[in-house]
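Researcher: Structure prediction, please.
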Amino acid sequence: MSIKTVMVTGNLGYIGSAMVPILVDSGYDVIGYDIGYYEECYLKPAPQKLEKQIKKDLRDVVTEDLHGVDCVLHLACLSNDPLGELNPSLTEDINFKATVELAKCAKTAGVKRFIYISSQSIYGVADTSKETNEDGEKNPLTAYAITKWKSECALREMCSDDFVVTYLRPATAYGASPNFRVDIVFNQFVAYAYVNKKIEIKSDGTPWRPMTHIADIIAAFMACIKAPAHLIKNEAFNVGTNDNNFTVKQLAETAKGCVAGTNLTFTGEHTDSRSYRVSSQKILTVLKDYYHPQWNIKKGGDELLKFYDETNFGKETFESWKCTRLKCLKKLIGDGKIDDNLRMK
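Model: Predicted structure follows.
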């Protein structure tokens, strides 16, 4: 099965903006599909050498958008719990219903592979005495996690020999990107240390958080493009490394160690029910010839410091709308650029 033309939905986002240059450098023709909510959030230039950019709401996808596409890498969604809870019905429309419609259009158009980014948040609360594998109990707690799991279930019914569907479940992402985010835990901790030399954790730091660098997430997508269909057809993969489980306390202590003189405190005033440890052995074994993760949080912390230096990252940027998705959408609504249904005006 030869893959030449790849569509990336959400190509202007946090992962997509870093993924497209790698796809192009690997020889693929890339079509971008993105509504453009975050196109003004870039902290550094990142021109994309695309065959075509489709600037369109995912809810409006039609079969013609997918003509000539061999493989879809589906990233576009309301991308975290705070966004998901902004309006759960919109999260259902965008993350679930539009995903299913995109897949239907892709299948009708003759797309060969559909690689879906799900989330380890579908595990919700798990027994942290052991690492959860892909067959572990699903206990999604938020609108975001629920739509991710519902999408997996619906896509599973659509998979066929001619339309190979794969489900990638990354741990919480971290790492530098042109379209950067500080509303994810490790990026935020290192930013607090860099800007304020102070990290304050509202919980007691005991919940577990698996972590995956965005370069390793991209590597997993690349592996699924290249791997034989029988290895990935209707398969789910936790995306990570042999050592990707950390407590919030361990993440904060690593971030503290990145910046000398940083003060770290735990107030314990909030409880966080989300806690799970996840095994990535399946992807490391089944796709061992294609997936080779390269990152750990210490290396990622050093990369973030370099990125903050390069982008003159300071308190103003940290607290602005540019790096926090919920703030950005609220600003777009306030500025009259999108309506309350997140439709572009």
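Model: Residues 88-109 form the longest helix (22 residues).
Researcher: Thanks, that helps.
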